[in-house]
Amino acid sequence: MELWFTEAHPSHRGLTFRVRRVLESRKSRYQQIDILETEDGARLFVLDGMVMLTTRDEFVYHEMLAHVALFAHPAPRRVLIIGGGDGGTAREAIKHPTVEHVDLVDIDEDVFELSRRHLPETAVSFDDPRVHLRAEDGAAFVREAKTPYDVVLVDSTEPIGPGAVLFGAEFHADIHRALGPDGIMACQSDTPFFDGETIRTLHRAVRPIYRSLHLYLASVPVYPSGLWSFTLGTKGGAAGVRPRALRTPPADWRLRYYSAEVHDACFALPPFVAELVS
Ligand code: SAM
Hints:
Layout: E1 3-9, E2 13-27, E3 32-38, E4 43-47, E5 50-54, H1 58-72, E6 78-83, H2 88-93, E7 101-105, H3 109-118, H4 120-123, E8 131-134, H5 138-144, E9 149-155, H6 169-178, E10 179-188, H7 196-206, E11 212-219, E12 227-234, H8 260-265, H9 271-274
Parallel strand pairs: 6-7, 6-9, 7-8, 9-10
Antiparallel strand pairs: 1-2, 2-3, 3-4, 4-5, 10-12, 11-12
The structure holds S-adenosylmethionine (SAM).
């Protein structure tokens, strides 16, 4: 008998994977967590029926969430990651030699535990002495933060359940306060094809908070529509000016999606997307 996992997407579409075996399935305090092995040998991390990552192409999302902000900052030392309990975004952040301290704040300790057990490709960052795991609500953590951060990366779920608070103006005002003078925030902001209103509402709510606010895109095959957006806000710098890459990644990092050219290109928005943030 063949086993298939299907994530239903808006407008009567979906994405389906042939499953070889279920590695672990657990109801945590916050969400249903499933780790599946697919027929192509990859691992699938699913929360509340939504695909968070597959080990086949997670590099796209993690490189684009991390490096656009980190290469735009003059010398990032302290990084805060909210969500991202699989460890992939932290893995990219610690590639930067200037990074001395990473707080990785995910509300669900079970995500840390299951990622360490089944997702070594991303959870490898947990063993780096610069990375500090904190099982806490990210909104409360950033509200209480005392020592400024150079870069804040929000690697959240959809704006539902525990993730909803991470799309609000209050949360972003707290991030802005927690950023140092050249501080940069980047967050995942869903797909322009199915979640245009999420992007429009987010930008309307947080535009007054940041010196400049920008949307950029990347193709993430396992997310609804395959076209994903990210939002970047700056605390310093010139108002409205898009942050350029101040350095390029060394070849030995072997990045597979992010590059200085992609950094420049990813901010070029098709008219139906530009309209959402105009
Ligand atoms: N890349 C994925 C996406 O775009 O859908 C997100 C991956 S990451 C695993 C999402 C994480 O956000 C989950 O592990 C979840 O536990 C965490 N999360 C949700 N709400 C949170 C909150 N309020 N504070 C901290 N972490 C939260």
